[in-house]
Design goal:
Elements: H1 3-19, H2 21-32, H3 37-53
Length: 66
């Protein structure tokens, strides 16, 4: 571990001990990026739809975007 990494880790630990930022950050990130398996299905469906809509020759989807 380099000196810069060690210093950054010490600063992060100090801030977390004084403010409890890690607990708040974990709670906030869980809201932004939920970890339930059903959200994965929704993301796969959304990305698949986007790929089908924006292909050059979208003959399978039947969508024409002009």
């Amino acid at each position: 571990m380099s000196k810069k990494e060690r210093i950054a880790g010490n600063v992060a630990n100090y801030v977390d001990e004084r403010t409890g930022a890690a607990k708040w950050l974990k709670k906030t990130l869980t809201k932004v990026f939920p970890d339930h398996w059903s959200f994965l299905l929704g993301e796969v469906a959304l990305y698949s739809f986007i790929i089908l809509c924006f292909q050059e020759h979208s003959s399978l989807s039947g969508l024409t975007l002009q």
